[in-house]
Each structure stands twice: as C-alpha cells, then as structure tokens.
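Input chain follows. Return structure tokens only.
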Amino acid sequence: MKLSVIIPCYNEKDTVREISGRVLAEPTPKEVIIVDDGSTDGSTDIIRAEIEPLGVKVIYRETNQGKGAAVSAGIKAATGDFIIIQDADLEYDPMEYGKLLKPLLAGQADAVYGSRFVTGEVRRVLYFWHYVGNKFLTLVSNMFTNMNLTDMETCYKAFRAETVKGLEIKERRFGFEPEITAKIAKRRLRVYEVGISYRGRTYTEGKKIGWKDGVSALWCIVRYNLFD
C-alpha cells in the first residue's frame, strides 16, 4: 500500500516547514507532493532549499490559481493507491492518517471525510459564525446529495486513488469541497466519516477563507448537484 499526500501551499512560510516535517514523520509509506501555488512570501525559497531535498515532490506554479487548482494538479501527479489532502498550515494532525485510511484499507469506503464535529478529540474553540456557516453549507449539501455528513468543508478527505482520479474537478478555489462531494454522491460512492482533532487558526495567524468563499460554496452546491 502506498499513500500520496497532497499539500497545496500558498503563502505559508511560517508553517510549511513544520507541517512537511510532521507529514514525513508519520509512519505510513508515502509520497509527499507539495503544490506551491505561486507563493510570494518566501514559502517557495523554504520549499526549494529545505523541503524538496528531503525527497518531497514539488510542483511550482508561477501564479496563484487557487486551492482547487492546486489539489487537482497534485491528484494528477499522485502515484499512490490512496490520496489524502493536507493543508499547509497546522490545523490538522498528520498522525491521524491511520483513522482516515482504516475504512479504505478495509475495503469499506471509496472516500473518507475527517469530521471536526463528530469527534472526541481536541478541537480549538474559535469563530461562532464560521461554525454556523460551515454547518449551514453542510446541511444544504446534504439536502442535495442525500448524504448525512457532519463536515462537508473539512480539509481532511481521503480517497482511493482510482476513485478521485476519475473525477473532473473544475473549481479552482475553495469550491473544490462541495464540488467533489456532489460528484461523489452522484456516483453513489461509499463515503465514511471519522472524527479528527482540529487546531484552527485565526486570521492574524494566517487563515484565508472568508464570507465570499462561503457564498461561492453555496453556488457550487447548487451548480454541481443540479447542472453539472
């Protein structure tokens, strides 16, 4: 079994070094693919000088094209049997890969979502309205897909490689999450959820997603469930 971990990175100079080390330290046999999405803050220099020499595969993009586009590029380059998406910040713990992989390795699932809300693990307390927005988007997505997810917007998604490589991803920004959920549901793939820990960050710590992304996600739910 070989795992591919895809790390989309845009302007994460304060965290990309540490998260790469944590991913590499996680014991599952894996290839690590960083997609440097046109970073302008020095992340590229860190990746090139300190991380790429460790055997990490890196895709350098000259301009920022968005998380969805970066993930799509990583999926195309992946050679593993299973694929996990890992943000370049420190909000998600790579030592929990085993939880995500368990239903896949057991042959029970085609995709596994790491839920920040159905969990007994540690979770940092942050923005109330982010929580409300997240639950609302998950609810609307569930209404269209007829699935009972608790955390559609989670970063931690794991897939059988042949499953996700067969999906055409069109969204270039954060609309990737509702798009791939809609396409998984349309294909009646087997989806599991597992509880994960979450150490969210504030905007001053580098959080990027905002209310405009929430509006876009809502449109993506409608678009990819009804029109695509």
